[in-house]
Amino acid sequence: MNSKKITFLLFFISFFSFSQINNEYLEVGATAPTIIGVNQFDESVISDEILKEKQILLLFYRGNWCSYCKKHLRELQNNLEALNSKNVFVIVVTPEKVEKVIETSDMINAKFSIIHDKDNSIMNAYKVSFDVNEINVSKYFESTLERLREYNEQRNNVLPVPATYIINKHSKISYVHYNPNYKERASFEDILNQLTGEN
């Protein structure tokens, strides 16, 4: 098989796999669903209260077993001062159980809030969740399931698309990065350029 055919086949498999993930995500201008949770510091996080004073940068990640997630979270921590200067409160949401959230936080010395989405309600509200199966995670299905059994609550085979949202003080989504390809993440240069710096 020549290289062109191989490239096309890989593209087709990749496209088909990602197409199985819901693409009816929340877009710019949509009202952001309320987020309620408890972060790794045992503090209550309620988005409606935060939005009275600050914008919110919301990110979803799969687990600290994912090297792309760890890299993105480290970049987030490295850019946290610049984000704070734009009057932004950062919320990160994951299906990782509480002890794994704490492990992740310690690993990157996180100073932002990470919430364990215990019943997938936040991921579902933002339309980023999907059930892991052999179609949408065909390449590493067995190893991914093994990770989920270790990191997620029992019988929770759900992962989020690692999406990024900016929510303004009017509870409206002003920026979205949504790509079912978990390797593609929002750049913090782009995020910072999108932030208004509103007070």
Assign the CATH class: Alpha Beta
Architecture, according to CATH?
A: 3-Layer(aba) Sandwich
User: What's the domain count?
Assistant: 1
Largest sheet features: 5 strands, mixed
pLDDT averaged residue by residue: 87
CATH superfamily: Glutaredoxin
What labels describe this entry?
single chain, 199 residues, alpha/beta, Glutaredoxin, 8 helices, 37% helix, 19% strand, globular, disordered N terminus
Give a summary of the structure in a few sentences.
The chain is an alpha/beta fold.
What can you tell me about this protein's structure?
The protein has 199 residues and is an alpha/beta fold. It has a single domain (3-194), classed as Glutaredoxin (3-Layer(aba) Sandwich). Helix content is 37%, strand content 19%. The chain has helices at 3-19, 47-50, 67-78, 80-85, 98-108, 121-125, 141-151, 188-194; strands at residues 36-38, 44-46, 55-60, 88-94, 113-116, 129-131, 158-160, 164-167, 173-177. A 5-stranded mixed β-sheet has the order 5-4-3-8-9. A two-stranded antiparallel ribbon has the order 1-2. Strands 6-7 form a two-stranded antiparallel sheet. The longest helix is centred in the N-terminal third of the chain and has 17 residues, at 3-19. The N and C termini lie far apart (59 Å).
Topology (SSEs and partners):
Elements: H1 3-19, E1 36-38, E2 44-46, H2 47-50, E3 55-60, H3 67-78, H4 80-85, E4 88-94, H5 98-108, E5 113-116, H6 121-125, E6 129-131, H7 141-151, E7 158-160, E8 164-167, E9 173-177, H8 188-194
Parallel strand pairs: 3-4, 4-5
Antiparallel strand pairs: 1-2, 3-8, 6-7, 8-9
